[in-house]
Amino acid sequence: MSLEKFISEAISPWMKNDGDESDIVLSSRIRLARNLKDYSFPIIATTEEASLVVKQVKEHFEKEKYDQYGPFELLEMDDMKPNEKKVLVEKHLISPQLSDESKKGAVLLSSDESLSIMVNEEDHLRIQCLFSGFQLSEGLVLASGIDDWIESKLHYAFDERKGYITSCPTNVGTGLRASVMMHLPALVITKQLNKILPAINQLGLVVRGIYGEGSEALGNLFQISNQITLGKSEEDIVEDLRGVVLQLIHQERAAREMLLQSSKLHLEDRVYRSYGILAYARTIESKEAAQRLSDVRLGIDLKILKELSASILNELMILTQPGFLQQYAGEILSPDQRDERRAALIRERLNLEIEKFN
Amino acid sequence: MLCHECNKREATLHFTKILNGEKNEIHLCDQCAREKGEYLPGSNGFSIHQLLSGLLNFEQPIQNSPSRSLQSEQQCKKCGMTFHQFARAGRFGCAECYETFNHKLDPMLKRVHSGNTVHIGKIPKRIGTGIQLQRKIVQLKEQLQQHISKEEFEEAAKLRDEIRSLEKLAQQSGGEG
User: Inter-chain contact B21–A167, Cβ cutoff 8 Å?
Assistant: First the structure.
Protein backbone atom coordinates (compact mmCIF):
# COMPACT_ATOMS: atom_id res chain seq x y z
CA MET A 1 0.00 0.00 0.00
CA SER A 2 1.29 3.49 -0.74
CA LEU A 3 2.02 5.69 2.24
CA GLU A 4 -0.46 8.33 1.11
CA LYS A 5 -3.25 5.80 0.91
CA PHE A 6 -2.28 4.27 4.24
CA ILE A 7 -2.31 7.66 5.93
CA SER A 8 -5.63 8.68 4.44
CA GLU A 9 -7.17 5.48 5.75
CA ALA A 10 -5.43 5.60 9.11
CA ILE A 11 -6.26 9.17 10.04
CA SER A 12 -9.85 9.57 11.21
CA PRO A 13 -11.87 11.92 8.97
CA TRP A 14 -12.70 14.20 11.93
CA MET A 15 -9.00 14.93 12.40
CA LYS A 16 -8.80 16.55 8.98
CA ASN A 17 -11.22 19.31 9.94
CA ASP A 18 -9.74 22.49 11.28
CA GLY A 19 -10.79 23.50 14.76
CA ASP A 20 -10.26 26.67 16.76
CA GLU A 21 -6.80 27.38 18.21
CA SER A 22 -5.56 24.25 16.50
CA ASP A 23 -1.93 25.35 16.73
CA ILE A 24 -2.08 24.58 20.46
CA VAL A 25 -5.23 22.57 21.13
CA LEU A 26 -4.99 19.46 18.97
CA SER A 27 -8.31 17.91 19.89
CA SER A 28 -11.30 18.11 22.23
CA ARG A 29 -13.18 15.18 23.67
CA ILE A 30 -16.45 14.77 25.52
CA ARG A 31 -17.33 11.50 27.21
CA LEU A 32 -20.59 10.53 28.90
CA ALA A 33 -20.85 7.41 31.08
CA ARG A 34 -24.27 5.76 31.12
CA ASN A 35 -25.68 2.52 32.49
CA LEU A 36 -28.83 0.54 31.87
CA LYS A 37 -31.13 0.19 34.83
CA ASP A 38 -31.77 -3.49 35.20
CA TYR A 39 -28.40 -5.01 34.41
CA SER A 40 -25.35 -5.64 36.57
CA PHE A 41 -22.42 -3.40 35.74
CA PRO A 42 -19.72 -4.89 33.52
CA ILE A 43 -17.35 -5.50 36.47
CA ILE A 44 -19.54 -8.37 37.73
CA ALA A 45 -21.91 -9.08 34.83
CA THR A 46 -22.19 -12.63 33.52
CA THR A 47 -21.48 -13.28 29.86
CA GLU A 48 -25.21 -13.64 29.20
CA GLU A 49 -26.01 -10.33 30.85
CA ALA A 50 -23.22 -8.59 28.95
CA SER A 51 -24.50 -10.07 25.67
CA LEU A 52 -28.00 -8.81 26.43
CA VAL A 53 -26.68 -5.28 26.87
CA VAL A 54 -24.92 -5.43 23.49
CA LYS A 55 -28.09 -6.84 21.92
CA GLN A 56 -30.31 -4.05 23.26
CA VAL A 57 -27.95 -1.33 22.10
CA LYS A 58 -27.45 -2.99 18.74
CA GLU A 59 -31.19 -3.27 18.11
CA HIS A 60 -31.71 0.40 18.88
CA PHE A 61 -29.00 1.42 16.45
CA GLU A 62 -30.33 -0.89 13.74
CA LYS A 63 -33.93 0.23 14.06
CA GLU A 64 -33.47 3.95 14.13
CA LYS A 65 -31.19 6.55 12.62
CA TYR A 66 -29.63 9.39 14.49
CA ASP A 67 -29.65 12.64 12.53
CA GLN A 68 -26.91 12.97 9.97
CA TYR A 69 -24.84 10.36 11.79
CA GLY A 70 -25.03 6.84 10.69
CA PRO A 71 -24.99 4.20 9.80
CA PHE A 72 -22.90 3.22 12.80
CA GLU A 73 -20.57 0.28 12.50
CA LEU A 74 -20.66 -2.22 15.35
CA LEU A 75 -17.34 -3.92 16.13
CA GLU A 76 -17.28 -6.67 18.73
CA MET A 77 -13.97 -7.22 20.51
CA ASP A 78 -14.32 -11.01 20.41
CA ASP A 79 -14.35 -10.93 16.60
CA MET A 80 -11.23 -8.80 16.21
CA LYS A 81 -7.56 -9.62 15.84
CA PRO A 82 -5.23 -8.22 18.54
CA ASN A 83 -3.56 -5.75 16.18
CA GLU A 84 -6.90 -4.47 14.86
CA LYS A 85 -7.89 -3.64 18.42
CA LYS A 86 -4.50 -2.05 19.07
CA VAL A 87 -5.01 0.28 16.12
CA LEU A 88 -8.39 1.42 17.50
CA VAL A 89 -6.73 2.10 20.87
CA GLU A 90 -4.00 4.13 19.19
CA LYS A 91 -6.65 6.18 17.41
CA HIS A 92 -8.28 6.80 20.83
CA LEU A 93 -11.53 5.27 19.58
CA ILE A 94 -11.54 2.60 22.27
CA SER A 95 -9.76 2.23 25.60
CA PRO A 96 -7.12 -0.38 26.38
CA GLN A 97 -9.53 -1.74 28.98
CA LEU A 98 -12.25 -2.38 26.39
CA SER A 99 -9.71 -3.98 24.09
CA ASP A 100 -8.07 -6.33 26.58
CA GLU A 101 -10.26 -6.86 29.62
CA SER A 102 -13.90 -6.45 28.70
CA LYS A 103 -16.48 -9.20 28.62
CA LYS A 104 -18.49 -8.94 25.39
CA GLY A 105 -17.00 -5.51 24.75
CA ALA A 106 -18.08 -3.71 21.61
CA VAL A 107 -17.87 -0.30 20.00
CA LEU A 108 -20.19 1.61 17.69
CA LEU A 109 -18.38 3.97 15.33
CA SER A 110 -19.80 6.73 13.15
CA SER A 111 -18.40 6.83 9.63
CA ASP A 112 -16.21 9.88 10.31
CA GLU A 113 -15.07 8.29 13.60
CA SER A 114 -15.93 11.42 15.56
CA LEU A 115 -18.51 9.48 17.56
CA SER A 116 -17.67 6.27 19.30
CA ILE A 117 -19.86 4.45 21.78
CA MET A 118 -18.15 1.79 23.82
CA VAL A 119 -20.38 -0.97 25.19
CA ASN A 120 -19.44 -2.99 28.29
CA GLU A 121 -16.35 -1.02 29.22
CA GLU A 122 -16.34 0.06 32.88
CA ASP A 123 -19.91 1.23 32.33
CA HIS A 124 -22.54 -0.20 29.98
CA LEU A 125 -22.19 2.79 27.66
CA ARG A 126 -19.43 5.29 27.13
CA ILE A 127 -20.49 7.90 24.58
CA GLN A 128 -17.47 9.71 23.19
CA CYS A 129 -17.23 12.65 20.77
CA LEU A 130 -13.94 13.75 19.28
CA PHE A 131 -13.42 17.12 17.63
CA SER A 132 -10.31 18.68 16.17
CA GLY A 133 -9.07 21.86 17.82
CA PHE A 134 -10.79 23.59 20.68
CA GLN A 135 -14.48 22.67 20.37
CA LEU A 136 -15.73 21.54 23.77
CA SER A 137 -19.18 23.13 23.64
CA GLU A 138 -19.82 21.65 20.20
CA GLY A 139 -18.81 18.26 21.56
CA LEU A 140 -21.15 18.57 24.51
CA VAL A 141 -24.12 19.43 22.28
CA LEU A 142 -23.44 16.46 20.05
CA ALA A 143 -22.88 14.01 22.92
CA SER A 144 -25.97 15.21 24.74
CA GLY A 145 -28.07 14.83 21.57
CA ILE A 146 -27.06 11.25 21.00
CA ASP A 147 -27.53 10.60 24.72
CA ASP A 148 -31.17 11.79 24.45
CA TRP A 149 -31.68 9.67 21.37
CA ILE A 150 -30.40 6.52 23.12
CA GLU A 151 -32.45 7.32 26.23
CA SER A 152 -35.62 7.59 24.16
CA LYS A 153 -35.62 3.78 24.02
CA LEU A 154 -33.22 2.39 26.62
CA HIS A 155 -33.83 2.67 30.34
CA TYR A 156 -30.94 4.43 32.09
CA ALA A 157 -29.92 4.02 35.71
CA PHE A 158 -30.63 7.49 37.09
CA ASP A 159 -31.17 8.68 40.63
CA GLU A 160 -32.75 11.96 41.57
CA ARG A 161 -30.01 12.86 44.03
CA LYS A 162 -27.01 11.05 42.62
CA GLY A 163 -27.70 11.66 38.93
CA TYR A 164 -26.47 9.22 36.32
CA ILE A 165 -25.33 6.12 38.16
CA THR A 166 -21.87 4.88 37.20
CA SER A 167 -19.86 1.87 38.26
CA CYS A 168 -17.09 4.03 39.72
CA PRO A 169 -18.21 6.80 42.10
CA THR A 170 -15.65 9.17 40.57
CA ASN A 171 -17.93 9.48 37.52
CA VAL A 172 -21.33 9.63 39.20
CA GLY A 173 -23.62 12.62 38.61
CA THR A 174 -23.14 13.93 35.11
CA GLY A 175 -20.93 11.03 34.00
CA LEU A 176 -19.12 13.70 32.03
CA ARG A 177 -15.44 13.82 31.32
CA ALA A 178 -14.42 16.73 29.11
CA SER A 179 -10.84 16.88 27.95
CA VAL A 180 -8.52 18.64 25.55
CA MET A 181 -5.17 17.58 24.16
CA MET A 182 -2.68 20.42 24.15
CA HIS A 183 0.78 20.89 22.66
CA LEU A 184 2.73 23.03 25.14
CA PRO A 185 6.39 22.97 24.10
CA ALA A 186 7.25 26.56 25.03
CA LEU A 187 5.86 26.21 28.56
CA VAL A 188 7.96 23.07 28.97
CA ILE A 189 11.15 24.62 27.51
CA THR A 190 10.81 27.70 29.71
CA LYS A 191 10.01 25.47 32.72
CA GLN A 192 6.83 27.40 33.47
CA LEU A 193 4.50 24.44 33.25
CA ASN A 194 5.70 22.96 36.54
CA LYS A 195 4.57 26.12 38.26
CA ILE A 196 1.19 26.17 36.53
CA LEU A 197 0.23 22.53 37.04
CA PRO A 198 -0.35 22.60 40.83
CA ALA A 199 -2.71 25.55 40.39
CA ILE A 200 -4.69 23.65 37.76
CA ASN A 201 -5.01 20.69 40.11
CA GLN A 202 -6.48 22.97 42.74
CA LEU A 203 -9.29 23.87 40.37
CA GLY A 204 -10.52 20.30 40.25
CA LEU A 205 -8.87 19.64 36.88
CA VAL A 206 -6.37 16.93 36.02
CA VAL A 207 -3.35 17.26 33.76
CA ARG A 208 -1.81 14.18 32.28
CA GLY A 209 1.03 13.64 29.89
CA ILE A 210 -0.20 11.55 27.02
CA TYR A 211 1.37 8.94 24.84
CA GLY A 212 3.79 8.48 27.69
CA GLU A 213 4.09 5.97 30.46
CA GLY A 214 3.00 7.22 33.85
CA SER A 215 3.15 10.95 34.21
CA GLU A 216 5.91 11.59 31.72
CA ALA A 217 4.68 13.67 28.81
CA LEU A 218 5.82 12.43 25.43
CA GLY A 219 6.15 15.07 22.80
CA ASN A 220 5.02 17.88 25.14
CA LEU A 221 1.42 16.73 24.71
CA PHE A 222 -0.86 17.13 27.71
CA GLN A 223 -4.40 16.11 28.37
CA ILE A 224 -6.43 18.36 30.63
CA SER A 225 -9.75 17.16 31.95
CA ASN A 226 -12.30 17.71 34.71
CA GLN A 227 -12.16 15.57 37.83
CA ILE A 228 -15.44 16.54 39.44
CA THR A 229 -18.64 15.12 37.95
CA LEU A 230 -21.09 15.66 40.81
CA GLY A 231 -22.73 18.90 41.96
CA LYS A 232 -21.94 20.87 38.83
CA SER A 233 -23.95 21.15 35.65
CA GLU A 234 -22.52 19.86 32.37
CA GLU A 235 -22.31 23.39 31.02
CA ASP A 236 -20.41 24.64 34.07
CA ILE A 237 -17.95 21.75 33.91
CA VAL A 238 -17.19 22.53 30.28
CA GLU A 239 -17.07 26.27 30.92
CA ASP A 240 -14.60 25.90 33.81
CA LEU A 241 -12.33 23.72 31.71
CA ARG A 242 -12.62 26.13 28.80
CA GLY A 243 -11.54 29.04 30.96
CA VAL A 244 -8.40 27.30 32.16
CA VAL A 245 -7.51 26.08 28.67
CA LEU A 246 -7.85 29.63 27.31
CA GLN A 247 -5.41 30.77 29.98
CA LEU A 248 -2.96 28.03 29.06
CA ILE A 249 -3.21 28.96 25.37
CA HIS A 250 -2.46 32.53 26.28
CA GLN A 251 0.55 31.55 28.42
CA GLU A 252 1.91 29.20 25.78
CA ARG A 253 1.64 31.93 23.13
CA ALA A 254 3.43 34.39 25.41
CA ALA A 255 6.18 31.84 26.13
CA ARG A 256 6.65 31.19 22.40
CA GLU A 257 6.93 34.91 21.75
CA MET A 258 9.47 35.23 24.52
CA LEU A 259 11.56 32.35 23.15
CA LEU A 260 11.55 33.94 19.70
CA GLN A 261 12.74 37.21 21.08
CA SER A 262 15.26 36.09 23.68
CA SER A 263 16.82 33.02 22.08
CA LYS A 264 15.84 32.78 18.45
CA LEU A 265 19.14 31.24 17.38
CA HIS A 266 18.89 28.41 19.92
CA LEU A 267 15.28 27.81 19.04
CA GLU A 268 16.07 27.60 15.32
CA ASP A 269 18.99 25.32 16.07
CA ARG A 270 16.76 23.02 18.10
CA VAL A 271 14.07 22.90 15.40
CA TYR A 272 16.49 22.26 12.52
CA ARG A 273 18.46 19.62 14.45
CA SER A 274 15.27 17.74 15.19
CA TYR A 275 14.16 18.09 11.59
CA GLY A 276 17.52 16.79 10.42
CA ILE A 277 17.30 13.76 12.66
CA LEU A 278 13.76 12.93 11.57
CA ALA A 279 14.69 13.38 7.91
CA TYR A 280 17.77 11.13 8.03
CA ALA A 281 17.57 8.74 11.00
CA ARG A 282 17.62 5.03 10.19
CA THR A 283 16.23 3.90 13.52
CA ILE A 284 14.37 5.89 16.15
CA GLU A 285 12.62 5.08 19.45
CA SER A 286 9.12 6.37 20.08
CA LYS A 287 10.31 8.64 22.88
CA GLU A 288 12.86 10.42 20.72
CA ALA A 289 10.48 10.56 17.77
CA ALA A 290 7.86 12.27 19.94
CA GLN A 291 10.31 14.89 21.17
CA ARG A 292 11.68 15.61 17.68
CA LEU A 293 8.19 15.81 16.21
CA SER A 294 7.22 18.29 18.90
CA ASP A 295 10.24 20.47 18.02
CA VAL A 296 9.38 20.34 14.33
CA ARG A 297 5.76 21.22 15.00
CA LEU A 298 6.87 24.19 17.09
CA GLY A 299 9.12 25.22 14.20
CA ILE A 300 6.15 25.05 11.82
CA ASP A 301 3.91 27.07 14.16
CA LEU A 302 6.58 29.75 14.54
CA LYS A 303 7.19 29.86 10.76
CA ILE A 304 10.78 28.70 11.13
CA LEU A 305 9.97 25.71 8.93
CA LYS A 306 7.77 26.88 6.09
CA GLU A 307 7.56 23.98 3.72
CA LEU A 308 5.79 21.56 6.08
CA SER A 309 2.13 21.25 6.96
CA ALA A 310 1.10 21.56 10.60
CA SER A 311 -0.87 18.32 10.64
CA ILE A 312 2.40 16.40 10.60
CA LEU A 313 2.66 16.07 14.40
CA ASN A 314 -0.91 14.83 14.85
CA GLU A 315 -0.50 12.34 12.03
CA LEU A 316 2.89 10.96 12.93
CA MET A 317 2.18 10.71 16.68
CA ILE A 318 -0.59 8.30 15.74
CA LEU A 319 1.08 6.50 12.86
CA THR A 320 4.37 5.76 14.63
CA GLN A 321 2.73 3.78 17.43
CA PRO A 322 3.39 0.03 17.47
CA GLY A 323 -0.05 -1.07 16.26
CA PHE A 324 0.02 1.17 13.20
CA LEU A 325 3.61 0.31 12.33
CA GLN A 326 2.64 -3.35 12.38
CA GLN A 327 -0.45 -2.74 10.33
CA TYR A 328 1.59 -0.86 7.72
CA ALA A 329 4.20 -3.61 7.68
CA GLY A 330 1.52 -6.28 7.56
CA GLU A 331 3.29 -8.34 10.22
CA ILE A 332 4.19 -8.46 13.90
CA LEU A 333 7.44 -6.57 14.57
CA SER A 334 10.05 -6.76 17.31
CA PRO A 335 10.91 -3.49 19.12
CA ASP A 336 14.11 -3.12 17.05
CA GLN A 337 12.21 -3.65 13.83
CA ARG A 338 9.63 -1.12 14.95
CA ASP A 339 12.32 1.53 15.53
CA GLU A 340 13.61 0.91 12.03
CA ARG A 341 10.12 1.07 10.49
CA ARG A 342 9.28 4.15 12.50
CA ALA A 343 12.32 5.99 11.15
CA ALA A 344 11.47 4.87 7.60
CA LEU A 345 7.86 5.97 7.88
CA ILE A 346 8.82 9.40 9.19
CA ARG A 347 11.37 9.86 6.38
CA GLU A 348 8.81 8.86 3.78
CA ARG A 349 6.19 11.17 5.26
CA LEU A 350 8.61 14.13 5.25
CA ASN A 351 9.53 13.36 1.64
CA LEU A 352 5.86 13.58 0.69
CA GLU A 353 5.82 17.09 2.11
CA ILE A 354 8.88 18.15 0.18
CA GLU A 355 7.48 16.72 -3.06
CA LYS A 356 4.27 18.63 -2.44
CA PHE A 357 6.22 21.83 -1.79
CA ASN A 358 8.24 21.53 -4.98
CA MET B 1 13.92 12.51 58.38
CA LEU B 2 12.79 9.14 59.68
CA CYS B 3 10.65 6.71 57.72
CA HIS B 4 6.93 7.18 58.42
CA GLU B 5 6.36 3.47 58.41
CA CYS B 6 9.04 2.01 60.72
CA ASN B 7 10.21 5.23 62.38
CA LYS B 8 13.69 3.70 62.59
CA ARG B 9 15.55 4.06 59.33
CA GLU B 10 16.23 7.24 57.42
CA ALA B 11 13.56 7.99 54.80
CA THR B 12 15.04 7.96 51.32
CA LEU B 13 11.90 7.99 49.19
CA HIS B 14 9.51 10.93 49.26
CA PHE B 15 6.05 10.95 47.75
CA THR B 16 3.61 13.77 47.38
CA LYS B 17 -0.04 13.12 46.65
CA ILE B 18 -2.20 16.10 45.73
CA LEU B 19 -5.92 15.60 45.71
CA ASN B 20 -8.34 18.48 45.27
CA GLY B 21 -5.60 20.77 46.44
CA GLU B 22 -4.89 18.86 49.63
CA LYS B 23 -1.26 17.91 49.85
CA ASN B 24 -0.30 14.66 51.44
CA GLU B 25 3.34 13.72 51.92
CA ILE B 26 4.66 10.25 52.53
CA HIS B 27 8.28 9.56 53.46
CA LEU B 28 9.56 6.01 53.45
CA CYS B 29 12.83 4.14 53.75
CA ASP B 30 13.89 1.77 51.00
CA GLN B 31 12.88 -1.30 52.88
CA CYS B 32 9.38 -0.21 53.86
CA ALA B 33 8.75 1.12 50.37
CA ARG B 34 9.65 -2.25 48.95
CA GLU B 35 7.28 -3.95 51.36
CA LYS B 36 4.49 -1.61 50.34
CA GLY B 37 5.27 -2.46 46.75
CA GLU B 38 3.20 0.18 45.04
CA TYR B 39 5.42 2.99 46.29
CA LEU B 40 8.48 1.74 44.44
CA PRO B 41 9.50 4.10 41.66
CA GLY B 42 8.69 2.66 38.30
CA SER B 43 5.95 0.36 39.49
CA ASN B 44 3.06 2.09 37.87
CA GLY B 45 0.26 -0.08 39.14
CA PHE B 46 -1.50 2.79 40.83
CA SER B 47 -4.99 3.15 39.43
CA ILE B 48 -7.80 5.51 40.26
CA HIS B 49 -9.67 2.61 41.80
CA GLN B 50 -6.87 1.86 44.22
CA LEU B 51 -6.64 5.52 45.12
CA LEU B 52 -10.34 5.43 45.82
CA SER B 53 -10.06 2.55 48.24
CA GLY B 54 -7.35 4.60 49.95
CA LEU B 55 -9.91 7.34 50.39
CA LEU B 56 -12.22 4.96 52.17
CA ASN B 57 -9.64 4.71 54.95
CA PHE B 58 -10.02 1.06 54.61
CA GLU B 59 -8.44 -1.33 57.11
CA GLN B 60 -5.92 -2.78 54.71
CA PRO B 61 -5.25 -6.45 55.21
CA ILE B 62 -8.42 -8.42 54.82
CA GLN B 63 -6.44 -11.61 54.53
CA ASN B 64 -5.54 -11.45 58.22
CA SER B 65 -9.14 -11.78 59.31
CA PRO B 66 -10.97 -13.98 56.90
CA SER B 67 -13.72 -14.62 59.40
CA ARG B 68 -14.64 -10.96 59.71
CA SER B 69 -15.51 -10.47 56.09
CA LEU B 70 -18.01 -13.28 56.35
CA GLN B 71 -19.55 -11.89 59.49
CA SER B 72 -22.70 -9.86 59.13
CA GLU B 73 -21.29 -7.75 56.35
CA GLN B 74 -23.76 -5.66 54.45
CA GLN B 75 -24.41 -6.98 50.99
CA CYS B 76 -26.24 -5.57 47.97
CA LYS B 77 -29.48 -7.51 47.60
CA LYS B 78 -29.44 -7.34 43.83
CA CYS B 79 -25.87 -8.15 42.83
CA GLY B 80 -24.43 -9.50 46.06
CA MET B 81 -21.52 -7.09 46.28
CA THR B 82 -20.18 -6.37 49.77
CA PHE B 83 -18.61 -3.10 50.87
CA HIS B 84 -15.27 -4.87 51.20
CA GLN B 85 -15.45 -5.94 47.59
CA PHE B 86 -16.36 -2.45 46.52
CA ALA B 87 -13.50 -0.95 48.48
CA ARG B 88 -11.05 -3.31 46.79
CA ALA B 89 -12.37 -2.85 43.26
CA GLY B 90 -13.32 0.81 43.55
CA ARG B 91 -16.39 0.04 41.48
CA PHE B 92 -19.96 -0.87 42.30
CA GLY B 93 -21.69 -3.92 40.87
CA CYS B 94 -25.08 -2.45 40.02
CA ALA B 95 -27.28 0.62 40.41
CA GLU B 96 -28.80 -0.83 43.59
CA CYS B 97 -25.43 -0.68 45.33
CA TYR B 98 -25.84 3.09 45.59
CA GLU B 99 -28.96 2.50 47.70
CA THR B 100 -27.44 -0.30 49.73
CA PHE B 101 -24.31 1.62 50.69
CA ASN B 102 -25.94 5.03 50.68
CA HIS B 103 -24.94 5.87 54.26
CA LYS B 104 -21.26 5.23 53.54
CA LEU B 105 -21.31 6.97 50.20
CA ASP B 106 -21.63 10.66 50.98
CA PRO B 107 -18.36 11.14 52.91
CA MET B 108 -16.50 9.52 50.03
CA LEU B 109 -18.35 11.49 47.35
CA LYS B 110 -17.55 14.69 49.22
CA ARG B 111 -13.85 13.96 49.03
CA VAL B 112 -13.88 12.98 45.39
CA HIS B 113 -16.17 15.75 44.18
CA SER B 114 -15.01 18.75 46.20
CA GLY B 115 -17.71 18.53 48.84
CA ASN B 116 -20.62 17.86 46.49
CA THR B 117 -23.05 15.02 47.06
CA VAL B 118 -26.07 16.02 44.97
CA HIS B 119 -26.45 15.99 41.19
CA ILE B 120 -27.60 19.27 39.68
CA GLY B 121 -26.93 18.55 36.02
CA LYS B 122 -28.89 16.99 33.23
CA ILE B 123 -32.05 14.96 33.87
CA PRO B 124 -32.95 12.28 31.32
CA LYS B 125 -35.69 13.49 28.96
CA ARG B 126 -37.95 10.47 28.97
CA ILE B 127 -37.69 8.83 32.39
CA GLY B 128 -36.90 12.15 34.05
CA THR B 129 -40.23 13.93 33.55
CA GLY B 130 -41.46 12.72 36.93
CA ILE B 131 -38.29 13.99 38.59
CA GLN B 132 -38.59 17.34 36.87
CA LEU B 133 -42.15 17.64 38.19
CA GLN B 134 -41.02 16.73 41.70
CA ARG B 135 -38.27 19.38 41.57
CA LYS B 136 -40.82 21.96 40.53
CA ILE B 137 -43.24 20.94 43.31
CA VAL B 138 -40.51 21.21 45.96
CA GLN B 139 -39.61 24.65 44.65
CA LEU B 140 -43.21 25.85 44.74
CA LYS B 141 -43.74 24.50 48.25
CA GLU B 142 -40.78 26.55 49.46
CA GLN B 143 -42.29 29.64 47.88
CA LEU B 144 -45.64 28.78 49.46
CA GLN B 145 -44.05 28.73 52.92
CA GLN B 146 -42.49 32.12 52.31
CA HIS B 147 -45.83 33.63 51.34
CA ILE B 148 -47.54 32.13 54.38
CA SER B 149 -44.91 33.49 56.73
CA LYS B 150 -45.39 36.92 55.21
CA GLU B 151 -49.17 36.48 55.51
CA GLU B 152 -49.63 36.88 51.76
CA PHE B 153 -52.58 34.53 51.64
CA GLU B 154 -53.87 35.38 48.20
CA GLU B 155 -50.53 34.51 46.61
CA ALA B 156 -50.30 31.40 48.79
CA ALA B 157 -53.71 30.17 47.64
CA LYS B 158 -52.65 30.51 44.00
CA LEU B 159 -49.50 28.49 44.64
CA ARG B 160 -51.44 25.86 46.58
CA ASP B 161 -53.71 25.29 43.59
CA GLU B 162 -50.75 25.08 41.26
CA ILE B 163 -49.03 22.55 43.50
CA ARG B 164 -52.19 20.43 43.64
CA SER B 165 -52.54 20.28 39.90
CA LEU B 166 -48.85 19.39 39.51
CA GLU B 167 -49.18 16.65 42.11
CA LYS B 168 -52.14 15.25 40.23
CA LEU B 169 -50.07 15.29 37.06
CA ALA B 170 -47.23 13.49 38.84
CA GLN B 171 -49.62 10.77 40.01
CA GLN B 172 -51.08 10.34 36.53
CA SER B 173 -47.67 9.86 34.98
CA GLY B 174 -47.66 6.66 36.98
CA GLY B 175 -45.39 7.53 39.89
CA GLU B 176 -42.56 6.33 37.72
CA GLY B 177 -38.98 7.55 37.77
Answer: no
Listed as ranges, residues in chain B with pLDDT below 70 are 17-21, 34-72, 173-177
In this complex, which of B116, B118, B128 lies closest to A158 when CB atoms are compared?
Answer: B128
Enumerate residues 6+ apart whose C-beta is below 8 A from B157.
none
Is B16 in the A-facing interface, judged by CB distances under 8 Å?
A: no
Which chain B residues have a beta carbon less than 8 Å from that of A230? 109, 112-113, 116-119
Nearest by CB: A170 against B112, B115, B125: B112
Describe chain A by its helix, strand, coil percentages, rounded to 5: 50, 15, 35
Question: So what's the pLDDT on residue A255?
Answer: 96
Confidence of residue A138 (pLDDT cuts 50, 70, 90): very high
How far is A342 from A326, CA to CA, in rounded Å?
Answer: 10
Per-residue pLDDT tens over the stretch A159-197: 989 999 999 999 999 999 999 999 999 999 998 888 888
- Which residues 128-157 in chain B show a CB within 8 A of chain A? 128, 131, 134
Instruction: Give the best residue of A123, A167, A235, A239 to mutate against chain B (max B CB count within 10 A).
Output: A167
| C-alpha torsion sign, points A252, A254, A257, A263 | negative
For A118-136, what is the mean pLDDT? 95
Helices A322-329 & A335-357 angle (0-180, nearest 10) = 80
Secondary structure class of A182 (helix, strand, coil): strand
B60 to chain A, closest Cα gap in Å: 20
Eight-state DSSP code of residue A174: T
- A279 Rama sector, left if φ>0, alpha if ψ -120 to 50, beta otherwise: alpha
Torsion sign (Cα): A42, A46, A47, A48: negative
CB contacts < 8 Å between A and B, how many? 130
What does the pLDDT look like over A20-29, one tens digit per residue? 888 999 999 9
Contacts with B20 from chain A: Cβ below 8 Å: 201-202, 204, 227
Top residue of B92, B105, B138 to mutate, by most chain A CBs within 10 Å, is: B92
Backbone torsions φ then ψ of A297, nearest 5 degrees: -60, -40
pLDDT band for A215, please (50, 70, 90 cuts). Answer: very low
Q: How far is CA B36 from the centre of its chain?
A: 27
What pLDDT is stored for residue B18 in this prediction? 67
Measured CA to CA, the distance from residue B95 to residue A123 in angstroms comes to 11
Q: Do A158 and B49 touch (CB under 8 A)?
A: no
A287 Cβ contact partners less than 8 Å away, ≥ 6 residues apart: A218
ipTM for the complex shown:
0.83
Q: Do B113 and A43 touch (CB under 8 A)?
A: no
pLDDT digits (tens, 9 = 90+) for A252-311: 999 999 999 999 999 999 999 999 999 999 999 988 999 999 999 999 999 999 888 888
What letter does residue A69 receive in the DSSP assignment?
A: B
